[in-house]
Automatic annotation (TrEMBL):
The protein's name: Lmo0937 family membrane protein
One Pfam family hit: DUF5670
Keywords assigned by UniProt, alphabetized: Membrane, Transmembrane, Transmembrane helix
Organism, scientific name: Novosphingobium album (ex Hu et al. 2023)
Highest taxon in the source lineage: Bacteria
Residue intervals passing through the bilayer: 26-43
Amino acid sequence: MLFTIAAILIALWLLGFVVFKVSGALIHLLLIIAVVVGLIQLFHGRRM
């Protein structure tokens, strides 16, 4: 699930570099948030 979200955000981030210069900052912010959430989940482990 998280991998899918990260892949979508990376694709949008690359699209922002090429097509949308204005929304690039928002996509960068979302990508940073996804990386931070992924690292937190990695260090804390999955709890179900």
